[in-house]
Inverse folding.
């Protein structure tokens, strides 16, 4: 069965979703603007109308820190796969802290049921990422594994500790392990192209590639320059000009799919493609908690459409696309993710070590055995 | 230090005594003997000594197989629960496992030979590179199966190892022709398949082998000829080179050159790296693998 967030053009699916949200007392967010027909099966929301406008304050069903988190997601204040997962886990810790088991109910079952409307609300604010999905699965499993004779305080403490260790192992320590392996691959005198943030200390030059409308490369550039690394900043349109100088390309990933495809910021597959044409090795850095069992071969079926108004730019006082809604045949497409096939990726650096792209199912299998 | 010297002596004696043995097998035999004679008081000390011994052997013979074989040996013997309070009992367990490991890998070449020779059809023309004992075993098995085939061997400079291979093949009454290293492109249209050995199989599924292998792989890809690699499983190593430069220097040059020469840029490397995209299949004692399956097997071996 297809998940509901890729069936927006199917009225039956939409009705089912509306009914479910009504039951959970979560507001339904409406789509905004004309959608390009190839992507009409996805949601497209405007940043100017967050779902928090539609709920009463103080919210009765939804915990206030979840409301805050939802607002931060929908406005783009918290962005990036790791940041979103960490914020989600911290918020869940708060929720667990404030939770009290109602009489005649068991914590292990009731808490999971309480979390469902929160998750629906958050996915209305911004579709869940693969890493967030894995984190939620983990928490739900931990909650349902709490034995029934466990006292409430003890159970809460255990869950808090679980969440803390998840964040520590899978996110913080994982990125340190990845940096360690990545450093081995950087030799003196290398010229490295980054589309993501990386920490290291060898003598090398970095070229930061950036793209509109998010321009996230500027933050990476700031941090690199502060460390005294020689940097060059280009927009993605200058890619084929700059690639002959590059010795290695480092990319980040939003998720790694079971068939070896890499899901990442839009523009990543373009960089990988051009790098392959120039025979430059492409390395992807990704923590194992972002590995998901989904299989995808294209960027159309499951993606995210961001606010189309972001594409409007004002130069010299003139914004040409300001009235794009009035032109009937014009659609603005602001895609967030794209999918890179494994033939373009030479190496994936994870906290378990360096693996080829095709070995993702092996890691998933090993992880399932561990659990 | 004294033990180190004796170890190297034993290793060299093994190679002299049995020239047909793989250098990694000889290394593991020496390590087993070292383990038997070791006098440490603690498990940690024992393991320290073993690691030192492996390093000493790597200095003598810088091939990838010695390094990978040594590490796998150490992992295999320490994989059991060493919870006996008595050190000598622990050591006996380790020695027993070491002997088991040695027996297993001594049989691996035979297993590979049995697997691969069925891929050689009657009337085939085979191209191979330099001198590999595993390829020899495969061709021996195929000849014993009454198959008729011709072999082209590259000369493989700078040590002309190809000529030695040709001699061994002639002794088996297999028609063989030695070609220049530069003639690989010329001869590729005549051959049906290419079989090479490997000094090391890396995590990506690529192989490290005598210099000239990469060229042969590129040519065979251009002519759409299958490129087969035969290797025992103890040659699987936890390296992940991205290109030729990324292969560590300690494998590229022989041990003597590494010790004496200052500027390695003036030396010719003895090995090169063939990426997995150019390899059709790998024949190992673990089975017939595609390059992407190698990582799977490596994870199983090392984790």
């Amino acid at each position: 069965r297809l998940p509901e967030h890729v069936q927006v053009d199917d009225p039956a699916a939409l009705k089912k979703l509306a009914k479910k949200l009504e039951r959970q007392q979560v507001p339904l967010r409406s789509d905004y603007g004309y959608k390009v027909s190839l992507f009409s099966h996805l949601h497209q929301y405007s940043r100017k109308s967050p779902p928090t406008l539609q709920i009463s304050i103080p919210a009765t069903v939804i915990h206030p820190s979840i409301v805050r988190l939802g607002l931060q997601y929908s406005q783009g204040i918290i962005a990036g796969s790791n940041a979103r997962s960490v914020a989600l886990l911290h918020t869940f810790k708060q929720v667990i802290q404030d939770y009290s088991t109602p009489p005649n109910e068991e914590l292990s079952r009731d808490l999971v049921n309480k979390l469902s409307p929160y998750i629906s609300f958050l996915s209305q604010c911004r579709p869940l990422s693969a890493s967030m999905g894995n984190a939620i699965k983990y928490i739900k499993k931990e909650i349902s594994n709490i034995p029934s004779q466990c006292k409430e305080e003890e159970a809460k403490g255990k869950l808090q500790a679980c969440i803390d260790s998840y964040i520590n192992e899978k996110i913080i320590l994982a990125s340190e392990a990845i940096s360690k392996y990545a450093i081995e691959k950087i030799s003196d005198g290398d010229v490295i192209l980054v589309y993501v943030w990386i920490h290291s200390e060898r003598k090398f030059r970095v070229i930061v590639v950036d793209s509109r409308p998010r321009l996230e490369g500027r933050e990476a550039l700031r941090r690199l320059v502060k460390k005294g690394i020689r940097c060059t900043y280009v927009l993605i349109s200058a890619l084929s000009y700059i690639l002959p100088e590059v010795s290695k390309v480092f990319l980040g990933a939003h998720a790694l799919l079971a068939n070896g495809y890499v899901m990442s910021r839009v523009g990543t597959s373009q960089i990988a493609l051009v790098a392959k044409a120039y025979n430059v090795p492409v390395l992807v850095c990704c923590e194992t908690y972002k590995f998901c069992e989904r299989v995808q071969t294209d960027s159309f079926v499951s993606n995210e459409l961001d606010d189309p108004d972001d594409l409007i730019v004002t130069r010299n006082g003139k914004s040409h696309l300001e009235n794009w809604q009035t032109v009937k045949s014009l659609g603005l497409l602001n895609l967030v993710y794209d999918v890179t096939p494994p033939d373009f990726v030479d190496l994936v650096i994870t906290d378990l070590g360096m693996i080829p792209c095709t070995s993702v199912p092996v890691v998933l299998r090993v992880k399932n055995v561990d659990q | 230090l004294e033990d180190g010297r004796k170890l190297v002596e034993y290793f060299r004696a093994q190679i002299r005594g049995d020239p047909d043995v793989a250098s990694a097998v000889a290394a593991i035999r020496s390590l087993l003997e070292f383990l038997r004679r070791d006098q440490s008081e603690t498990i940690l000390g024992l393991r320290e000594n073993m690691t030192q011994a492996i390093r000493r052997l790597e200095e003598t013979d810088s091939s990838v197989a010695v390094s990978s074989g040594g590490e796998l040996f150490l992992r295999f013997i320490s994989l059991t629960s060493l919870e006996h309070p008595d050190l000598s009992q622990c050591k006996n367990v380790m020695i027993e496992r070491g002997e088991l490991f040695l027996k297993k890998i001594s049989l691996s070449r035979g297993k590979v030979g049995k697997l691969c020779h069925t891929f050689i059809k009657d009337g085939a023309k085979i191209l191979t590179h330099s001198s590999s004992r595993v390829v020899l075993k495969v061709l021996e098995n195929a000849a014993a199966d009454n198959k008729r085939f011709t072999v082209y061997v590259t000369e493989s400079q700078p040590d002309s190892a190809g000529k030695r291979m040709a001699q061994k093949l002639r002794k088996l009454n297999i028609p063989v022709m030695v070609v220049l290293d530069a003639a690989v492109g010329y001869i590729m249209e005549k051959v049906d398949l290419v079989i090479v050995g490997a000094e090391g199989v890396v995590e990506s599924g690529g192989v490290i082998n005598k210099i000239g292998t990469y060229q042969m792989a590129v040519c065979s890809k251009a002519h759409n000829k299958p490129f087969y690699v035969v290797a025992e499983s103890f040659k699987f190593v936890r390296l992940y080179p991205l290109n030729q430069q990324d292969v560590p220097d300690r494998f590229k040059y022989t041990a003597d050159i590494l010790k004496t020469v200052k500027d390695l840029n003036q030396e010719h490397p003895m090995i090169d790296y063939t990426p997995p995209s150019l390899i059709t299949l790998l024949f190992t004692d673990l089975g017939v693998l595609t390059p992407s399956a190698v990582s799977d097997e490596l994870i199983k071996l090392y984790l």
User: Anything to note?
Assistant: The mean pLDDT of chain A is 84.
